[in-house]
Amino acid sequence: MTRRIPAVRILATGGTIAGAAPSPRDTSGYQAGALPVDALLAALPPMDDVRVDARQLFSLDSKDALPGFWQALAREAALALTDPAVDGVVLTHGTDTMEETAWFLHLTLAPAKPLVITGAMRPATATSADGPMNLLQAVQVAACPHAARQGVIAVLNGQIHHARHLRKAHTHRVDAFDSGEAGPVGFVQDGYAGWLSPPRRTTPRFAPETPLAPVDILFDYPGISAAMVDAALRGGARGLVWAGYGNGSVSGRIEPLLREAHGRGLAIVRASRTGAGRVGVPDPGGFPQAAGLDPYKARIALMLALGAGTPPAALQALFDTLSYE
């Protein structure tokens, strides 16, 4: 009996992995998204055990990716995942906002097939570019049926990270991504995908077409201007993530302003600027806490929650749940 060769669809969006620089020595002075996906495939070795087809969706630098981009990409990924001829999907993406896109996809999609996001820290023209290996390993993981049980995942530098914990933790190293205290969910070596974590939930909390409410993030720091809170209100924000000191603390002179803004209809969620740990101190004023979500992931969750009409009283339960998925 002939074994069916798995089929993987690559959806390309640009980023450093498709970047080009004037010299092979340049790793920072380059144009992101300059090369088409066919050029990325040409850098890969022959793959007899996987069938690959690729489509160019965008050619952008992920620092310019707006929330509407997340929604468009989610729709395209959903179409690819429902194609009976496709066994797994790989998204190429810039690293600057990869963690935001992966988290949005996690909240809005329920992939019954592997959905893998990858990118690179060095442009495609650089000596020792990391993009070809990252893309090769992402395709290999997307062809692995077990990957479908992990939800949205990222493959970078030989490691597999879940969207919930994925973060960019360094400015330029090829091992710039990690999963904080949670650690990676797996690894890839010579085409073998090993798993270090049990399967995760694949039920989406929201739909890709959920309206995204405008939400800002403010970081507390010594001497922060009181005008910052008012600026968020005047700018039309419906929600605010407060990235406070330590366990989500709020400056004494700012706290009354937040409570006033809350009384004027601004949804406020307390997070921590530290980048790790759970905000767990009860808030006497009733502000929901981001629990274990960092400010960036808390913002996306709040954008979707407000857009979906989630009642204020239900926000804390939502954040508590999302923190442990």
Description:
One of its GO terms (biological process) is asparagine metabolic process. The active site is at residues 16, 95. Residues 8-193 form the L-asparaginase N-terminal domain. There is one protein chain. With 325 residues, the chain is an alpha/beta fold. The chain has 2 domains: 7-195, L-asparaginase, N-terminal domain (Rossmann fold); 215-323, Rossmann fold (3-Layer(aba) Sandwich). Helix content is 26%, strand content 20%. The protein has an 8-stranded mixed beta sheet. It has a 3-stranded parallel beta sheet with strand order 11-12-13, with helices on both faces. It has a two-stranded antiparallel sheet with strand order 7-8. Helix 2 packs across helix 3 (98-108) and helix 3 runs parallel beside helix 7 (295-307).
Summarize this entry quickly.
The chain has eight helices and 13 strands.
